Amino acid sequence: MKRILKDPLLAIGIVFLTLLFLFAIFMPTIRTGQLQPPNEPRFDAVFSPIGKPFLTPGEKGATFGTDDIGRDVLARLAQGARVSLVVGLTVQILALFFGMLMGVLGVFAPKWIRVPLLRLTDAMFAFPDILLAILLVATLSPQYLLVRLPFLKVVPDEWIGILPVVAALSITAWPSIARLVKVQVESVKDREFVVASRAAGASTPYLVVKHILPQVLPLILAVSMVEMAGTVLAESALSFIGIGVQAPNPSWGNMINNARSGDITAHLSLLMLPCILLSLTIFALNFVGDGLQSLFDPKARG
Amino acid sequence: MAGEAAPGDAATIEAGEKASQQDVERIRHQMGLDRPWPVRYVETVVHAAQGDFGKSYTGTKEPVGTIIARTLPLTALLAMLSIVVASGVGILLGTISGVYRNKAPDRLILTVSTLGVTIPTFVLAPVLVYIFAVKLNQLPVSWRVDRPEGDFFYLLLPVLILSARPAALIARLTRASMIETLQQEFIRTAIAKGVPRLRLYIRHALRNAILPVVTAIGTTFGILLTGSFIIETAFTIPGLGMRTIEAIKALDMPVVQAAVFVTGALFILINTVVDMLLPLLDPRIRESQV
Predict the structure, then answer these.
(1) Helix B240-249 and helix B64-99: axis angle, to 10°?
(2) If we measure between CA atoms, which residue out of A293, A235, A276 comes closest to residue A90?
(3) Taking a C-beta distance cutoff of 8 angstroms, is the pair B232, B246 a contact?
(4) Cβ–Cβ of B123/A243 closer than 8 Å?
(5) ipTM of the complex
(6) CB–CB of A138 and B251 under 8 A?
(7) Distance of alpha carbon B162 from its chain centroid, rounded?
């Protein structure tokens, strides 16, 4: 705890992310009588006496105003935060799972499995990530994913639209985790406590789960936090160019694009709010990831 | 191969919304889309290797090769200008930063480059457009068919935005590499024998420090290529990036496949060229290869 406070960027990052999570979880559910569902225009805005759908921040109880068709910006920002965090977390959990599996197999599997796996990981690095994600998002439709992976039926309807984004970003995210896990596992696997346990008759799976992974996990989690910044960024980028989260559902990316293509001068807050929120989120994830990394890695602390 | 999984194939689009099932089947047969996918995959690869990417499914059914030939030069120009700007600015700032380590110029450059790395392109683009194009009214907001001021006037803002992130990455790397180099013995020797400072930093330190930076310039090209997709959409520049996004939205798979293939090939080509450049810059690598 003391060490966390010593690193102000880490502390600020943690506070910001906590607030963001609270904002994302609770803001859409709090109905103070003024917060509209994010996809519906405000009635009083659409039919306001002046007849303009756009409310400036603070007008008629809309804290951040409404967008050009009268949707509450605060509600949409909160929904966008939900999208960013859900995509970021899901993708990183999937990437962690596959990355750790691949990384461990890359060290312990027999050669005929190991070598193709490592070559595959290398091949994934040879191609620009977002380009691959763009291709995958274009290819994997929600319907196709639902047919091929029936267990996805548990996903609530409103989230089905983001399945292709999650799938595409997970596929591009696992190789960097796999490479890190491989290097870390290799550095631990010949240490005394592992050798001792092996001498006492432990099997390889037992060693990996009980001794090796707990050693390397903190660092890997810290790195995946930095990677999550990249994922949040990629989701917004895809939504910005119009192939990620589809209208009318809000995402910070498509909110920025909407605001940009409208009359910027009139709706400056419409453009700036998602921009600021997105940039701060990416800052915070980077700071927290880097901070935790140096906290867990005694060499870097030096 | 990825084209296989796409929802509602080209035949459904071609036939239109009101077509009967038989019509769709007939068109699908004409287009050869009812054959098994491995057959079509091999066919696509063979044709692509011969430079034939097929025809676009939409609009005037333009051959994909023509589309690429028309749109790629603009994207390549954008990327090349950006990499030149990014390398120049990045190496300059990184060197200054490394020389003035932990002093005011270094702090300033580090802060700016952290911002440059973390602020996304598509946040920077509308904000800078607002400042330069809307408020100051100096630069154009988007591409025009007739460009009285010439292409470069229209490319200025996109290039600036596109090069921000690579420039920041290159600056950080140059700084780290300079700091490491400046701590080495031969630098102390050079200082002792009285080499002028500027010459010391450029001829002695930077020449050594620049090698990892050159490798990184190759990999930042990937960031540039994907960044150009976003920038072209934001500034409506009719390059390969914007055309690809249009194709994705229209499920125009031949165009998407070819565009991804071309950009991927370009990325690999650039990195190979960079790898071949390294021995020219560093006699140590040159000798170890002989």
Answers:
(1) 120
(2) A235
(3) no
(4) no
(5) 0.75
(6) yes
(7) 8
Partners of residue B223 in chain A, C-beta under 8 Å: 128
The dihedral built from the CA positions of residue B104, B108, B111 and B114, taken in this order, carries a sign that is negative
Q: Nearest CA to B205 among B110, B125, B95, B64?
A: B95
pLDDT tens sequence across B227-249: 888 888 888 888 898 888 888 88
Q: Which structure tokens are listed for A250?
A: 């809000």
- Are A105 and A210 in contact by the 8 Å Cβ rule? The answer is no
Residues B76, B151 within the same domain: yes
CA distances from A11 to A19, A218, A282, B187 (A): 12, 18, 15, 39
Mark yes or no for CB contact A264/B134 under 8 Å: yes
> In this predicted model, what pLDDT tens digit does every residue of B139-163 receive, in sequence order?
777 777 777 777 778 888 899 899 9
Structural tokens at position A3: 């060490």
Q: Report yes or no: B57 at the A interface, CB cutoff 8 Å.
A: no
Q: Is residue B118 part of a domain?
A: yes
Tell me the whole-structure pTM to 2 decimals: 0.82
Q: Please tell me the total number of residues recorded for chain B in this structure.
A: 290
User: B128: domain range?
Assistant: 65-289
Note whether B99 and B44 are same-domain residues: no
DSSP B237: -
